[in-house]
Amino acid sequence: MPNLQIEYTPIYALRAQRQNARTHSKRQIRQIADSIERFGFCNPILVDDDLTILAGHGRVAAAQLLNLTTVPTVRLSHLSEADKRAYVIADNRLAEKAGLGSRPAGD
Questions:
Q1: Strand pairing of 45-47 and 53-55?
Q2: How is the chain classified by DSSP, letter by letter?
Q3: Residues whose CB is less than 8 angstroms from the CB of residue 21 and which lie 6 or more positions away in sequence, other chains included
Q4: Could you tell me which of 8, 83, 17 has the C-alpha nearest to residue 53?
Q5: Which of 18, 26, 46, 68 could form a disulfide with 63 if both were Cys (CB 3.0 to 4.6 A apart)?
Q6: In the chain, what is the straight-line distance between the N-terminal and C-terminal CA atoms, in Å?
Q7: Whole-structure pTM over 0.85, yes or no?
Q8: Angle 91-97-25 (CA atoms, 0-180°, nearest 5)?
Q9: pLDDT score of 11
Q10: Residue 96 has pLDDT above 60, yes or no
Q11: Largest pairwise CA distance in the chain
Q12: Measured between alpha carbons, how far is 16 from 48 in angstroms, rounded to an integer?
């Protein structure tokens, strides 16, 4: 298991993925910004060694809306190019499968 560390990275240094599968509406960005204002930046942006965003495009957009200059990031240096592509797909698919509502019995 890699030793992950949080770094505070200038927003201007981050690079968006060329083919980001997930899009965020202005309403969603505002909701993320509201959450950051209320609870703090609790979920870091996941990046590769080139500072390309693997997960967290919406959080970066919300940080820009809030005029933040840096965001917490975690570098996933241990992932190969194939692993990065697979992670991005898996992360997006898992988010799509998340539901709303009550928890199942037994949880």
A1: antiparallel
A2: -----EEEEEGGG-B--TT------HHHHHHHHHHHHHH-S-SPEEE-TT-BEEE-HHHHHHHHHTT-SEEEEEE-TT--HHHHHHHHHHHHHHHHH---SPPPTT-
A3: 88, 89, 92
A4: 17
A5: 68
A6: 28
A7: no
A8: 75
A9: 97
A10: no
A11: 46
A12: 11
